TrEMBL record:
Organism: Lotus japonicus
GO molecular function: cysteine-type endopeptidase inhibitor activity
SUPFAM superfamilies membership: Cystatin/monellin
InterPro entries cross-referenced by the UniProt entry: Cystatin_dom (IPR000010), Cystatin_sf (IPR046350)
Signal peptide: 1-19
A Pfam family it matches: SQAPI
Protein name: Cystatin domain-containing protein
Spans through the membrane: none
Cystatin domain mapped to chain residues: 29-121
Domain of life assignment: Eukaryota
Keywords: Protease inhibitor, Signal, Thiol protease inhibitor
Lineage of the organism: Eukaryota, Viridiplantae, Streptophyta, Embryophyta, Tracheophyta
Length: 122
């Protein structure tokens, strides 16, 4: 009798995980892999990009400002990794924008974000 319960519970868990995985695949996301961000103008993507520039400025003393999000991918983990290529420029208005790759880790349900990496794209 105990074996039957374990089997039923195992099948229910497997079914739930399979359904969740299928739902993520339909959205174009899967656990562990990066998928392209479809809407780079999404307010949340812009918020992540602004966070990256702001944190980089705090850590480095630079005075960059976001111009636009050039491209981006996201990765579902125990949270979400965002890998964005952003155009940003320095303090002077005449300065040309440069591209940077920013990696941001977010656990939105905890209101947690961390700038993992911010480097120029060559």
């Amino acid at each position: 009798m105990r074996f039957d319960r374990v089997l039923i519970v195992s099948l229910l868990i497997l079914s739930a995980v399979s359904g969740f995985s299928a739902a993520l695949r339909q959205k174009g996301a899967f656990v562990g892999g990066y998928t392209p961000i479809k809407d780079l103008n999404d307010p949340h993507v812009k918020e992540i990009a602004n966070f990256a520039v702001s944190e980089y400025d705090k850590q480095s003393g630079a005075k960059l400002r976001l111009v636009k999000v050039v491209s981006g991918d996201s990765q579902v983990v125990a949270g979400t990794n965002y890998r964005l290529v952003i155009a940003a420029k320095g303090g002077s208005r005449s300065a040309a924008a440069s591209n940077y790759e920013a990696l941001v880790y977010e656990r939105s349900w905890e209101h947690f974000r961390n700038l993992t990496s911010f480097k120029p794209v060559h």
